[in-house]
Amino acid sequence: MESAWTALALSLKVAGCATLLNLLLGVGVGFLLARGRFVGRDLLDTVLTLPMVMPPTVLGFYLLVLVGRRGSLGAWLHDSFGINLIFTWQGAVIAASLVAFPLVFKPARAAFEAVDGQLEQAARVLGVSEAAIFFRVTLPLAWRGILAGVLLAFARALGEFGATLMVAGSIPGKTQTLSIAVYEAVQAGQDDVANTLVLITSVVCMVVLLAAGRLAPGRIANQ
Amino acid sequence: MQLDIDIRKTLHSGKRTFQLQVRFQSVSQRIVIFGPSGSGKSLTLKAIAGLMRPDHGHIRLDGETLFDAGAGIDLAPQARKVGYLFQDYALFPHLSVRQNIGFGLKRGWFNPRAAEKSEAVDYWLEALHLSHLAHQMPGELSGGQRQRTALARALVAEPRALLLDEPFAALDPLLRQRMREELDELQRRLQVPMVLITHDPEDVAVFGEQVLALHDGMIAPAEACQPPGVLPARAC
């Protein structure tokens, strides 16, 4: 039973960190794709959407190739900073972030595109700087749409299995998240443990979905 | 107000191209640019505010060059110190009337707080009969109240000119007449120079100290449209 709470805590930590990372990157990329005019914009959108349709194991494999000890990025991280991501909870964060990323940047892009450009022009004429316009007009108006995506991404990260297992493995108390613990419990024939874990996971996901539903665009009291 | 404009801009939309070629000089306090929709009125107004960059030419206001393609001068909209009243007012929907009016007075990355006190904002709330609506959101206002909020927001920064984009088009006819009178009275009191664009001859009759007729991106000689108060005939 205690291992169940450990797994839940670890899952929340991994999903929380992954969501924070995705919030920053997703808002940035969503804004870039919504407002930027550059060659390869559609291609970038497509590539970043890939994690939504690719098997998580394939993504995990890509990550291993990239950040593994012999991977180009992994070797550099290890040699320069002594950082190793494989079989660590930080590695699980990277895996969960990658898988959930499209769920953040897609709604963020749509939310930014829905903001009336005339409001930004009005702010410009009123003498407010470009950076301030982003924080005072654009972001507050896009916020609800972004938040709905972020909550979905949190739920997705919480349930992440395949890519996390490939990158971080299943070390109890260290990288064994809820969804992996369920798999291990069933494999070991511990049905009571599995029952508890499944119940906890279901409740947490329900809560997140309810919250996301309340924030979904369309309920905004805009105008 | 001394306004000296000579701009050219070519716009492409699919296979169609639109040529804007506007040149006029004025020392009038009330300029009305009159023309049908699609004649380039809004573009001209946006160019003055810095929201549209012309290809060639210059824009000078009270001796200061806002834009000069030849000299590579293009002041940011933030630096032009003009007030702009958008056709549908462009009030910030997430901010109250008070916050909307105080928006431009507040520097930095945060909006004015809902309870933030400001003498200038209070003055304009009072002057435009908005005090009792200070905490309302724009979505809860009537058309006339929205327009007064937008006017207060533009005027609180003490702009050197007020640019008005079809200010009465979004209002119903009765209200339109009343708001015209209000703006007329306000402008006389403040002596703030204004450039108003419209397709409504009534606006021309009330505000047209100097009338410029715009058609297909070209402007008729200003002198042809004098004296004031006379509806611009086809000769313009």
TrEMBL record, chain A:
Do you know which CDD domains this protein is assigned to? TM_PBP2
Question: What InterPro entries does the record tag this protein with?
Answer: ABC_perm_TupB-like, MetI-like, MetI-like_sf, ModB_ABC
Q: List where the protein spans the membrane.
A: 12-34, 46-67, 87-105, 141-159, 193-213
What are the protein's UniProt keywords? Answer: Cell inner membrane, Cell membrane, Membrane, Molybdenum, Transmembrane, Transmembrane helix, Transport
In which broad location class does this protein mainly occur, judging by the first location in its UniProt entry?
A: membrane
Report the subcellular localization: Cell inner membrane; Cell membrane
Q: How does it sit in the bilayer?
A: Multi-pass membrane protein
GO-annotated molecular function: molybdate ion transmembrane transporter activity
How is this protein annotated for GO cellular component? plasma membrane
Question: Could you tell me which NCBIfam families the record lists for this protein?
Answer: ABC_perm1, modB_ABC
Identification of the protein by name: Molybdenum transport system permease
Look up and give the organism this protein is from. Answer: Pseudogulbenkiania ferrooxidans 2002
Automatic annotation (TrEMBL), chain B:
Q: Signal peptide: which range, if any?
A: none
> Ranges for the ABC transporter domain?
2-233
Q: Which InterPro entries match?
A: AAA+_ATPase, ABC_SmlMolc_Importer, ABC_transporter-like_ATP-bd, P-loop_NTPase
Q: Does the keyword ATP-binding apply?
A: yes
Keyword match 4Fe-4S:
no
A single MF term (Gene Ontology): ATP hydrolysis activity
Q: Which keywords label this protein?
A: ATP-binding, Cell membrane, Membrane, Nucleotide-binding, Transport
User: What is the name of the protein in this document?
Assistant: ABC transporter related protein
Q: Which organism is it from?
A: Pseudogulbenkiania ferrooxidans 2002
